[in-house]
TrEMBL record:
Pfam families per record: Beta-Casp, RMMBL
Name of the protein: MBL fold hydrolase
InterPro entries from the UniProt entry: Beta_Casp, MBL, RibonucZ/Hydroxyglut_hydro, RMMBL
SMART domains given in the database record: Beta-Casp
Annotated ranges, domain Beta-Casp: 58-183
Lineage: superkingdom: Bacteria
Keyword list, A-Z: Hydrolase
Single GO molecular function: hydrolase activity
Coiled-coil regions listed in the entry: none
Matches recorded under PANTHER family: CLEAVAGE AND POLYADENYLATION SPECIFICITY FACTOR FAMILY MEMBER, INTEGRATOR COMPLEX SUBUNIT 11
Length: 268
């Protein structure tokens, strides 16, 4: 999709702070990072599990995978999008090319369906989903929920987290208390469907695919204002991330900030 629009004139700004305390890998390195991780995971001979949000994250991932596949840089293996919602959303993406960025528009005008490529299979029904189990690894499974707090990804995690040959690749933010967060932080075992599952697979993360801007991107966005806002309210972030971003913007840009408490009401 198109890049974030500049701010213009702003008096008071509500700014997300999900990744206000860190810097992602460069977006230009995204495909290279994906290729490296996927190639290593496929070489191990196990399943590659990617919990992904159905809206935008799955489509961004497919866009990168199609690019790699076209360039012959993707390992030969089946890739499954095992999410009915993601499948529906992908169809919607194809219907509105006017929202694509320049690179995607160019591909579209050339007749390139960059959300579909050889060996990619959409598994919509439960029966189709179950048949993934019959496919020998290596294979890639993209499924929701993105934080692993539900959805079909749990069935695959139940099956493959204990497999040392398999890999879990986290491509989005994992909230505190979510299964994805526990795995990201190195849990040795997790409970799924009432069973205690030992975590023996490799767990990796890619920041370059996140829909949330890192500290640099958020500061750049604030800097697009034609007149600096009088105050910034930092929302949608854990306290340490919001505090880090507020401090950095105050230090570098001289703009006062405020971090609301949960459920706090503020009159502007």
């Amino acid at each position: 999709l198109k890049d974030t629009q500049p701010l213009g004139d702003v008096d008071v700004l509500l700014c997300e702070s999900t990744y206000g305390d860190r810097i992602h890998e460069a977006s230009t390195m995204r495909d290279e990072i994906i290729q490296k991780l996927v190639t290593e995971a496929a070489h191990n001979g196990g399943a590659i599990m990617i919990p992904a949000f159905s809206i935008e994250r799955t489509q961004e991932l497919l866009y990168s995978l199609e690019t790699l596949a076209t360039e012959g840089k993707l390992p030969q293996m089946p890739i499954f999008v095992d999410s009915p919602l993601a499948i529906k959303v992908t169809k919607v993406f194809k219907e509105f090319p006017e929202y694509y960025d320049k690179e995607a528009c160019k591909k579209y005008m050339q007749g390139n369906d960059f959300l579909q490529f050889p060996r990619l299979e959409m598994t919509n029904t439960k029966e189709e989903s179950k048949k993934i189990n019959d496919i020998n690894p290596p294979k890639m499974i993209i499924a929701g929920a993105g934080m692993m707090n539900g959805g079909r990804i749990l069935h695959h995690a139940h099956r493959y987290l204990s497999d040392p040959k398999s890999t879990l690749i986290i491509v989005g933010y994992q909230a505190q208390g979510s299964l994805g967060r526990r795995l990201y932080e190195g849990a040795e075992s997790v409970k799924i469907f009432g069973d205690e599952i030992p975590v023996r697979c490799t767990v990796k993360a890619i920041g370059a695919l996140s829909a949330h801007g890192d500290q640099h991107k958020l500061m750049s966005w604030v800097g697009t204002a034609t007149q600096a806002p009088k105050k910034i309210y930092y929302v949608h972030g854990e306290p340490h991330a919001a505090t880090a971003l507020a401090h950095k913007i105050k230090q570098d840009m001289g703009i006062s900030g405020f971090i609301p408490e949960y459920a706090e009401t503020i009159e502007v």
